[in-house]
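Lab notebook page, bench 4
Experiment: in silico fold of construct C2
Operator: M.H.
Input chain length: 160 residues
Purpose: comparison with the prior construct
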Amino acid sequence: MTKFIFTADWDYVADGVMGGLSRGGMTREVYKGRMAAVLRGDVSLENNGGFVQIAFDLPANHTGFDASAWQGIKLEVCGNGALYDIRLRSLELTRPWQSYRAEFHAASTWQSIHIPFAELAPHRTESPLDLTKLRRIGILGIGREFHAEIAVASVGLYRG
């Protein structure tokens, strides 16, 4: 299997950008034996909230990152057994609530998760996912009140 690994410069974002009350943060630390970006937070649905997120911009110029030669995304993750979202954004998406998304569980032991691009569902957009114009990848704890804890050791692309 061929793979490509991103060098991620993660940002933390929560629903406070829209008035929500979820709280959390991101650290870089050794988590269960592996260096990782670790998202921790308490997701609150109060005040129209409901998410905590870490995300990074893809290396690209003004035309976006071209992932069309790849089959999907590979994550190396460990967490608290909860359900999380991965979200991709492309250059065509102009609203912050638009994305292409899939759910996955972050088990309490390290695991490799493969998410085919074909399994990413468009959210609040009619535009099909254009793999030649990707710009951002996010990992979210979202949609229900819970304590999020997910460690991400790597994010990459795979084929084969």
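Observations: The chain has a mean pLDDT of 95. The longest strand covers residues 146-159.
Next step: discuss at group meeting.
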